[in-house]
Design goal:
Elements (H helix, E strand, L loop, with lengths): L1 H13 L3 E4 L2 E4 L3 H20 L14
Antiparallel strand pairs: 1-2
Helix pairs in contact: 1-2
């Protein structure tokens, strides 16, 4: 995913809308679509780096 992110950023900074990674080429219609793709991949990377999150285990205590 980080390779894809790098490819998207490089394409945006160079002014092109075609991105090639993993043997695939994607052409975005507008800069806004390219920006949305960058935001999406950044969210996905952040989610993977955060991990699964907290695990809540309910625990009941009987009041005596």
């Amino acid at each position: 995913m980080k390779l894809r992110h790098s490819a998207l950023l490089a394409a945006r900074y160079s002014g092109t809308r075609s991105v090639s990674y993993d043997g695939k080429t994607v052409t975005y219609g507008t800069d806004a679509e390219l920006a949305a793709a960058i935001s999406d991949i950044e969210r996905r990377i952040a989610k993977l780096e955060r991990g699964a999150g907290r695990i809540l285990r309910p625990h009941a205590v009987k009041d005596l």
